[in-house]
Backbone:
C-alpha cells in the first residue's frame, strides 16, 4: 500500500493530475499508519502483522 501510494503520488505530481496526488497521499498515510500499528504489536484487521 505504501509503494502504491508513492507511485500514484509521483505520477500525479509529474502529470499534474490532482486526483492521483490526493489518492496517492491518502494511501501513503494509511499504509504508514497500518505499518506502524503492525510493528507495535497491535492486531490490524485480525492479523498480528501487517505486510
Residues:
Amino acid at each position: 500500500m505504501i509503494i502504491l501510494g508513492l507511485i500514484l503520488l509521483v505520477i500525479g505530481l509529474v502529470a499534474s493530475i490532482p486526483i492521483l496526488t490526493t489518492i496517492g497521499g491518502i494511501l501513503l498515510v494509511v499504509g504508514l499508519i497500518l505499518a506502524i500499528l503492525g510493528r507495535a504489536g497491535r492486531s490490524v484487521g485480525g492479523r498480528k502483522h501487517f505486510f
Q: What stands out?
A: Residues 2-39 form one domain.
